[in-house]
Amino acid sequence: MNCRHCHAPVDLQLIDLGTSPPSNSYVTTETLSAPERWYPLRVLTCTNCWLVQTEDFADRSEFFSADYAYFSSVSESWLDHSRRYVEAMAERFDLGEKSLIVEVASNDGYLLQYAKARGIPTLGVEPTHSTAVAAREKGIEVLEEFFGTALAEQLAAEGRSADLTAANNVLAHVPDINDFVSGFATLLKPAGVATFEFPHLLSLIDGAQFDTIYHEHYSYLSLTTVRRIFAANGLTVFDVEQIPTHGGSLRVYAQRSDSGVRAIEASVGALLAVEREKGVETPDYYTQLQSQAETIAADLLVFLTEARSAGKTIAAYGAAAKGNTLLNFAGVRPFLLPYVVDRNPAKAGKYMPGSRIPIVGEDCLRRDRPDYVLILPWNLRDELDRQLAYVREWGGRIVTAVPSLSVA
Questions:
Q1: Which of 4, 91, 235, 362 is the most buried (most CB within 10 A)?
Q2: Distance, CA of 132 to CA of 109 (rounded, Å)
Q3: CB-CB contact of 240 with 188 (8 Å)
Q4: C-alpha neighbours within 13 Å on the C-beta side of residue 145
């Protein structure tokens, strides 16, 4: 395998999670009796540019299909994060009715709705039909395409260059990261700004967040590597913020290398120094995650098995992609975990890929009053603790498995 960015041979393994189906390919009642496609899930590190990346076994159209079931607006905390982002960007970069914000991977309009409410012209780019339809219902224009240099050139030629581009939790999702990044350099106005949010590699490794690894995440990113990829494709990083979303993420600000005028903030050098001290450019940094993942999976199995033997009842909450990685790596099946509750109507009545655990509505929790509720999207623990406060009324306890088993 050669690196997606620098094309050097890649052979340093970060983790091998065996095989699993794509984590967002939820099983329907109609397909329950049909076989699923399982692919190896192995992540390697390029020791030339230090890009951490999955091996490729399937086309991205299989991961981002027309019935894609991830809708950003389901999470109240994510909506609040997006509203505050729009407010901050509008103020910092003086965006108004003569500006244009283009969001790549605009999903169901969760972010652009706040720009539209401020009177700022917007355009979404979103390849999944199900979420694009939801965004259009909010009055947001959406191009139903994958983003890259060709689309950026088309938009620029049409006079739709951007003052601000937003790309939240998508930089890791693209197979051709060079073409994707180059597209932003093409689409931006000379003084335009591109922002990217993505889970930080340091959070993944230091927090044993192996369940954030799944097939549609092609890359796992440090600022060290992102800065290098951007520079090779016409963008210069001028600021970076560490934010708490998704268990610890970065918001990177970039400008065109040929025309950008903003000074590079001290935050860039400071975080690069932290990463260097952690060892992101040394092979040893990438050797611990495998054993940590195996311990987490084993501890979860022991807990579920012992609870079942003791006659305790268990349910899970949040049919998240990260939950599918965890359940499939640990080998959890419905006899240990009978169902997963989720508020997303696009997932209700379906089954978790691989494990085939049914996804049900929240009324099942109130009806069954389980002894334990396992939260799969642990990054939303605070939000879900508030939503599930009623579980404690009957003595139920909240469980998380990552970064270590916790019962509270």
A1: 235
A2: 8
A3: no
A4: 12
d(CA 84, CA 90): 10
289-407 carries CATH number 3.40.50.720: yes
Q: Give every CB contact of residue 270 below 8 A, 6+ residues apart in sequence.
A: none
391: its two tokens? 């579980």
Residue identified by tokens 């967040």 is: 209
pLDDT per residue rounded down to tens, the chain (408 residues)? 999 999 999 999 999 999 999 988 899 999 999 999 999 999 999 999 999 999 876 666 666 555 555 677 777 889 999 999 999 999 999 999 999 999 999 999 999 999 999 999 999 999 999 899 999 999 999 999 999 999 999 999 999 999 999 999 999 999 999 999 999 999 999 999 999 999 999 999 999 999 999 998 999 999 999 999 999 999 999 999 999 998 999 999 999 999 999 999 999 999 999 999 999 999 999 999 999 999 999 999 999 999 999 999 999 999 999 999 999 999 999 999 999 999 988 899 999 999 999 999 999 999 999 999 999 999 999 889 999 999 999 999 999 999 999 999
Domain 72-286 classified CATH 3.40.50.720? no
Indicate the pTM of the whole model.
0.91
Contact 363, 301 (CB under 8 A): no
Let me know if the fold of 72-286 is the same as that of 289-407: yes
User: What ranges do the domains of the chain cover?
Assistant: 72-286, 289-407
